[in-house]
Amino acid sequence: MTSAPADRGDLARFPDDWETALAIVAHPDDLEYGAAGAIASWTAAGKKVAYLLATRGEAGIASMAPEEAANLREAEQVASAAIVGVTSVEFLDHPDGLIEYGLPLRRDFTAAIRRHRPDLVVTFNHHETWPGPRWNTPDHRNVGRAALDAVADAGNRHLHTDIGPAPWEGVRYAAVAGSPSATHAVDITGTLDTAIASLEAHRAYLDGLGSGNWMADARGLLTAMAQSAGERYGGRPATAFEVILC
Ligand SMILES: [Zn+2]
User: Fold this and answer.
1) pTM score of the predicted model
2) Residue 181 C-alpha to ligand 1 middle, in angstroms?
């Protein structure tokens, strides 16, 4: 498999002219596998970031009953967020593994965008494939697309008129982590270790993957991802995003 040449050009510097971000993803751990190093650098610079999780991650640990896993994974996500300076973490209760794209999902995200009034919306890969390519999951595709669509919904005063507090047209950028079409990067030289610690906070999840699973090696995986992005960003450890103007 080869990447398209257009995907291998240098990454641009991530926009800095924003103050408030809302990150909308499907599962506990999604942000830690794709964006936490960047988020840590943003909060260290005084920017405000909040997390919205579409699920509680109840179907993510094969050896654990869903309700037990949901409670544990919620707690791990809150701890993980705190490590990168994020204290606002909300969970919707869409069904893990079975999230459908549709108006209920867009409506929930619209409500969150109108409440948080972010300049930047961060989400996780909405494309059919990961870089590589490997096939993506329906939860990520559906949540990513609904989050991007909800940016416009939130600004349209004629949609979801019962959801307050008021329409919000202020989202300037959307940033997609884990995208096969990355365009921009954030230097995470100073926050890579923090990002690794935030993924390692998902202890029960990582243990559930088994020690031989490459996804369970937080340090190895995040270091490799940072180096891979860095090859297109001046050799510095980096987190790559697809940035979309809103
Ligand atoms: Zn996920």
Assistant:
1) 0.95
2) 18
175, β-bridge pairs: 122, 243
In eight-state DSSP terms, residue 99 is P
Q: How far apart are CA 30 and CA 178, in angstroms?
A: 9
**pLDDT, averaged across the chain:** 95
Q: How far is CA 227 from CA 95, 130, 198, 218, in A?
A: 34, 17, 18, 14
CATH architecture under which domain 23-245 falls: 3-Layer(aba) Sandwich (3.40)
CA 235 distance to own-chain centroid? 24
Model pLDDT, residue 78? 98
- Whether the CB-CB separation of 118 and 17 falls below 8 Å is answered with no
Residue boundaries of the structural domains of the chain = 23-245
How far does the centroid of ligand 1 lie from the alpha carbon of residue 245, in Å? Answer: 24
Place of tokens 């599962």: 27
- Centroid of ligand 1 to alpha carbon of 15 (angstroms): 25
Which tens digit of pLDDT belongs to each residue from 16-71? 999 999 999 999 999 999 899 999 999 999 999 999 999 999 999 999 999 999 99
Alpha-carbon span 74 to 55, nearest angstrom: 9
Pairing status of strand 12-13 against strand 20-25: unpaired
**Cα 233 versus chain centre, distance:** 21
CA atoms of 55 and 36, how far apart (whole Å): 18
CB 70 within 8 A of CB 50: no
List strand residue ranges (DSSP E) for the chain, in order: 12-13, 20-25, 48-53, 88-91, 120-124, 129-130, 134-135, 173-177, 184-187, 238-245
